[in-house]
Amino acid sequence: MLRTALTLLTFALCLPVLAEELRVPLPGRDDLVIDLPAQWRAQVRRPHAELPPSVAISGPDATALQMILTPIWPAGSSAKAPTADELRAQVQSGATQAKPRAVEAALPLKDLGASGKTGYYFSATDRAPEPGGYKHLTQGVLGMNELRVAFTVLANGQSHEPTAQALELLRSLRRAPASKSP
Q1: Contact 43/56 with Cβ under 8 angstroms?
Q2: What are the b/e assignments for 51-61, b being 16+ CB within 10 Å?
């Protein structure tokens, strides 16, 4: 019976969500709450109940905007929040890896500017996107207490507006006490 319940829960978490608020349960922690703009869709993917989930988010036109969020918590009993320097170093590593494929000569890190949170990101334009791929990349990490939320935003066409909306979604992320099952 427990296996059936877990299977149903896993299936429910993989269904697309068409709601204003998406709650992502994190084992033994407060939920991650995502406020989705109208007509945006989200799908929670959780390969194993104890591992961090990935949240795939798309704008109204999935070929114009895709986002992946992965909340990551510290292993073991440590609940230490990442420092700004640790977050910055993690994002700098991503920028260094992206630079050889980027049109831009430099990929400066930017402060996410999220009230009460620390986060950094960089943006790059792919020099030669794969067929069906995305031309614009924005990638970073947001610190929320002990939680790190790694994110990737992929966009095509005029990337400014959809990327700005995605960054605003990230700034609005919050935590809430874990939902209780009825």
Answers
A1: yes
A2: ebbbbebbbee
Best CA proximity match to 20, nearest among 2, 47, 38, 42? 38
What one-character DSSP code corresponds to residue 47? S
* Nearest C-alpha neighbor of 165 from the set 59, 26, 49, 13: 59
Query: Which of 6, 19, 142 has the alpha carbon at shortest distance from 81?
Result: 142
Torsional class of 151: left (φ above 0), alpha (ψ -120 to 50), beta (otherwise): beta
- Note the helical H segments in the chain: 2-14, 84-98, 160-171
Place of tokens 């704008």: 59
The CB density around residue 141, as the number of other CB atoms within 10 Å, is: 23
Q: Comparing C-alpha atoms, which of 66, 45, 68 is closest to residue 132?
A: 66
pTM for the structure as a whole: 0.84
Asked if residue 81 lies in contact with residue 72, where contact means CB atoms within 8 angstroms, the answer is no
* pLDDT tens over the chain, length 182 residues: 333 333 333 444 444 444 589 999 998 889 999 999 999 999 999 988 778 999 999 998 888 999 999 999 887 666 788 899 999 999 999 999 999 999 999 999 999 998 889 999 999 999 999 998 999 999 999 999 899 999 999 999 876 788 999 999 999 999 999 876 54
- 99 neighbors 91 (Cβ within 8 angstroms): no
